[in-house]
Amino acid sequence: MKKIISSSLVLFASVAIFISCKHETAFSIANPGGNAGGTTPIPGTTGITCSTDSVYFANSILPLIISGCATTGCHSAASHADGVTLVNYATIRNYVSAGNAGNSKLYKVLVKTGSERMPLPPLPAFTASQIALVQKWINQGAKNNGCDACDTTSFKYATAIQPLMQNNCTGCHNPASLGGGIDLSTYTTVKASVTSGRLWGTINWTAGFSAMPKGGNKMPACQITQIKKWIDAGALNN
Asked: I need a surface site. Which of 77, 85, 120, 141 has the fewest CB within 10 A?
């Protein structure tokens, strides 16, 4: 998985990311139907209660990899930079040694520094907490699992909205890669997008707005409800 392409190709890939950050998802985690009871299950996980000690692929790992790695110019199905595709469990599993994060190519490139780390500079590196999440998932067996996780009664920025932005949006919308000229990496920039109406219009796939995630599935109804409740409550930094 280590980059072996020339500097010119690296530059080309970086330019491609700036021009068009597009996800090409091959695994749906959307639930368009929703659930009025307050918890929306991810397909294939209905009835599975989340454990606070477990990391779930469908809930946490896939959105993170799609946002940070499976973009145009990188490891999407169409781009497959260096022959690497990271769009679903099967393709991600190719670079994971279940039970041993330290021996997994995916984990190794996330913790590298400089020009060898992934995502490639100038894109932001995964945060320490995101890397720890991937590490824990691998060490727990790198299972293709999921659980009923979304709670519409939880819509504070720090505990609900910010994680949604980090896992679904900031791979394309960060200071180094301003997809559509939008940065969603901080509260201030997210709030600006709320004020302009762009955040709600794009995630709700409202006519006249570019549907987000771009080229991917609509966010689960429960997550959209969480964001709407947060916006309606004043989009506070809480």
From this structure: 141
The 10 Å Cβ neighbour count of residue 207 is 7
Q: Are 30 and 223 in contact (CB under 8 A)?
A: no
Q: Is the dihedral of CA 68, 91, 19, 206 positive or negative?
A: negative
79, pLDDT greater than 80: no
The predicted model gives 165-194 an average pLDDT of 85
Nearest to 88 by CA among 27, 134, 167: 27
233 Cβ contact list (under 8 Å, min separation 6): 155
pLDDT of residue 30: 34
- In this structure, is the dihedral angle defined by the CA atoms of residues 71, 76, 81 and 84, taken in order, positive or negative? positive
Cα 187 to Cα 153: distance, rounded to the nearest angstrom: 20
Cα–Cα distance list, 150 to 37, 59, 92, 97, 237 (Å): 11, 9, 24, 29, 20
Question: What residue has token string 């219009």?
Answer: 201
Token pair 């809480």 is found at 238
For the stretch 210-234, pLDDT in tens is 888 776 668 878 889 999 999 999 9
DSSP-derived 3-state class of residue 174: strand
* pLDDT at position 52: 85
pLDDT over 80 (residue 9): no
Gap between the Cα atoms of 218 and 220, Å rounded? 6
What is the tens place of the pLDDT at every residue in 108-118? Answer: 999 998 888 89
For residue 156, what are its two tokens? Answer: 């504070």
